Amino acid sequence: MKKLTSQMISLLGAENFITDKTECIYYSQDVYRASSHVTCGVMRPGNMTELSAGVKIAAMAGYSLFPRGGGVSYTSGYLPTVEKSLTIDTTRMNRILEINQQDMYVTVECGCRWVDLYEALKNTGLRTPFWGTLSGISATVGGSLSQNSIFFGSGHYGTAADSVIGMKLVTIGGDIITTGSGAVKGGSVFFRHYGPDLTGLFTSDAGALAVKATITLRLMAETPHKVFGSFNFQTSNDMFAAMAEIARQGLASECFGFDPYLQSQRMKRESLAKDVKALTGVVKANSSLLGGLKEGAKMALSGRRYMDEVRYSVHIITEHKYDGVAEHYMADIRAIAKKCNGEEIENTIPKVISANPFTPLNNMIGPAGERWSPVHALVPHSRADKLQSAIEAVYTKFAKDMAEYNIGTGYLYTTVGTSAVVIEPVFFWPDALLPFHHQHVEKSVLKAMKGFPENNQARSVVQKIRESLIDLFLAQGAVHFQIGKTYKYKQGLHDNSYQLVESLKKNLDPQLRLNPGALGLWPDDDKGKKGE
User: Fold this and answer.
1) Class of domain 96-221
2) How far apart are CA 219 and CA 221, in angstroms?
């Protein structure tokens, strides 16, 4: 380690090779858990040249490498799984390299946050089709592509991976691979497809195949006119029917919903000060001062009481170049909701989320400081009802333990493109927070929390329920974002398909040194090992 430290300091500078024990413990945690292995050090390259050289040095010294973006993961995606490990913190590689308005692409370094890209494009009249996750104040473009991610723009344009044109990546040997039209000698990065789709191979790979260095995304004209709608449904079946039809018709840029428990948690956690801040954002986001003031006044008068009797709430944003078209979309949505037994309610939630898209990560704990963790499944619309019922059956099985240890469960629902819906069960339980939470949740929020002591019993029950749900998702043929080392990717694929993934891994990383365990890809001496 002494020789490696000397080499890394020579390459990166002492401040960018971290071996401090407290910092290494933090880098060995995510939102859900702490790894039983603590990383030996953290390299923080500032550009592709440093990344390439650092990876080569570490690999030659026999270390396994675990790439990390903003860190807001709950599936052990970047957590070390072996003793001799190094973490690659990519957040210094955060520059926006080119905004090409003529050829309609933007190139960023892998550690660029979604919020920074959003701000850089704000006054250009352009945006990326998918433009960020709810955690975009921390989440990086590179991390989102390794995990794949959804939210802003997903109703129309799918996932983060669907907006990518090409990448430059660093292999475990320090070599640089270029994908898309940028790989053509004398070419440029304007187009994704030329021969086999090499770009697609490195999306959703959990950082197991190569380390992302730079990324090029498509640009499109802004759709500045937005209309908002929120609806209440008495049953999840009616909610799913409405969301499916809205998605099939391509009417919403964002279409998401909450069950009664999760929306009650949301209402508890927000403060009066945050309400005022949110209202200010809505006023500023409105195209006219008068219109913004009217919207703010309407929201202030409605307060939060309108949610008291709401069961399954669905929140929708429509957008278009022309205001009238967005209004027509919302008229169609209202008709669909009515047909599915829905009633329109005050649309505060989508207005606030649209006006304040990248907020602090205080939602990674419960309103009283409880631990929080989701799992999720992506299924076609036709399977949503069945999966929801099956999840509830799992909860019934664990009902006694959940009551004993005060474990609460809710759901977030989101449509993706025209064909899919995400069902995301969410857990809250009383337990001590990790250093990870103290690093990411605002200090003012933490100060107001009484906190909880260590609660290994509740944590163990949550883990058993998570494992049962993950087995259920496998049996139901669901797929996932953020595969990491949690979802059963290997077990769910046909043998020939997984063998292709294994062959790619062995070609790019023969000793399986890059994020071992991700996608179920373990070195031979660790086969059968679990990531959690």
Assistant:
1) alpha beta
2) 7
Contact 151, 134 (CB under 8 A): yes
250: left (phi > 0), else alpha (psi -120 to 50), else beta?
left
pLDDT digits (tens, 9 = 90+) for 169-198: 999 999 999 999 999 999 999 999 999 999
Domain with CATH 3.30.465.10 in the chain: 96-221
The secondary structure of 435-466 as a DSSP string is: HHHHHHS-HHHHHT-------HHHHHHHHHHH
What tokens were used for 433?
């927070």
**Res. 289: pLDDT tops 50:** no
List Cα–Cα distances, 168 to 240, 470, 508, in angstroms. 40, 33, 14
| Closest of 11, 38, 16 to residue 27, by C-alpha | 38
Q: Where in the chain is the domain with CATH 3.30.70.3450?
A: 225-355
Domain span(s) for CATH 3.30.43.10 in the chain: 2-89
Those residues whose C-beta lies under 8 Å from the C-beta of residue 344, and which sit 6 or more positions away, are: 229, 230, 231, 232, 334, 337
pLDDT digits 0-9 by tens, 235-275: 999 999 999 999 999 999 999 999 999 888 877 765 444 55
| Four-residue CA torsion sign, 516, 519, 520, 524 | negative
Residues with Cβ within 8 Å of 463's Cβ and at least 6 positions away in sequence, in order, are 532
pLDDT of residue 59 exceeding 70: yes
Q: Which fold has domain 362-475?
A: Alpha-Beta Plaits (3.30.70)
Three-state SS at 479: strand
Among residues 9, 11, 88, 13, the alpha carbon closest in space to that of 43 is found at 88
Q: What is the DSSP code string of 83-119? A: SSEEEEE-TT---EEEEETTTTEEEEETT-BHHHHHH
> Are 419 and 249 contacting, i.e. CB atoms less than 8 angstroms apart?
no
- Indicate the pTM of the whole model: 0.92
Torsion over CA of 530, 380, 312 and 280, rounded to 10 degrees? 80
Please report, as a single letter, which amino acid is at residue 482: Q
Torsion of CA 392, 253, 230, 395, to 10 degrees: 10
Q: How far is CA 387 from CA 84, 295, 392, 413, 473, in A?
A: 40, 38, 9, 12, 8
Q: Which long-range contacts (CB under 8 A, 24 or more apart) does 299-307 make?
A: 299/346, 299/348, 299/351, 299/352, 300/275, 302/346, 302/348, 304/267, 304/270, 306/345, 306/346, 306/348, 307/263, 307/264, 307/267, 307/345
Report the run of H or E that residue 127 belongs to, with start and end: strand 126-127
4 DSSP assignment: H
CATH top class, domain 225-355 = alpha beta
In residues, how long is the chain?
532
382: its two tokens: 């036709």
| Fold (CATH) for 2-89 | 3.30.43
